[in-house]
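Quick one:
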Amino acid sequence: MGDRKAARDTEFQSFVIGRWPRLMRTAFLLTGEQHAAEDLVQSTLEQVYVAWRRVGSADDPEAYVRRVMINAHARRHRRRLREFLAPKDDSGLVREVPDTGDRIGQAEDRSALLSALAQLPTRQREAVVLRYWEDLTETQTAEAMGCSVGAVKSNAAKGIAKLRAIPGLAEMVTHGGRQ
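Output:
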């Protein structure tokens, strides 16, 4: 019995180490704050650890964990009934692509994008982050959000339309960033 528990603990630890940067990035994009993202990932992993036997044997454990995280985020948001605040700091996030070029321009672009995401309603923000930032399919996004593919399409389209309506953000995209 102890060997099986140790094997499960090792498997869980490997999962967490391998997925931590991606989970943190998703949580940060959902919450808009570094500390809130850390809390969200931590509470998600606590829930997942308790059920790791079931989660670890799932077809796609990462999708299962993402769903738990989105549900936890939705519960927190419903409880607080408040709008998202603009992100304050993303300096602790692991970068997937090394930064090159104009660092000030990149920081301003990133800040503008994160501020724009913070203005979206929760479901639209979730759909945009999962579909376009995490590059999930519509079906994977629907599974993660616990809704239909049509709801994902609708929320993503509305979210993108709101992002396009933000003047500074639209100029960044159409002119290829800062000049």
